[in-house]
Design goal:
CATH architecture: Sandwich
Strand content: over 45%
Length: 97
């Protein structure tokens, strides 16, 4: 699940990423805006959650990485694109509605 919060005076969007991954010790979100560096997510009521400030009016590619090495693509993302490894990256659109 993805939630977006827009600001009136800033050219960025707060995007909250949330995913359910049972029986793992941790999950990170990685995206092209952060150079694919892992951002640790926090466990909240059985789901993993992290909020990032992303640039406005972008198509940001992202994926989740579980501590067990398993990659997860968000089925509820705004879109999906193929990646260079033969998999799919999820896309979040940060354009204003």
């Amino acid at each position: 699940m993805i939630k977006k919060r827009y600001f009136k005076t800033k050219h960025e969007v707060e995007v909250t990423f949330e995913v359910s991954v049972p029986d793992v010790d941790g999950v990170s979100v990685l995206c092209d805006v952060t150079g694919w560096e892992p951002v640790p997510m926090k466990s909240v009521r059985g789901r993993w959650r992290a909020s990032l400030r992303l640039p406005l009016d972008r198509q940001v590619q992202f994926r989740y990485l579980a501590a067990n090495g398993h990659w997860i693509t968000d089925d509820e993302a705004d879109g999906h694109v193929g990646n260079e490894y033969g998999g799919q990256n999820a896309v979040v659109d940060t354009s204003r509605p």
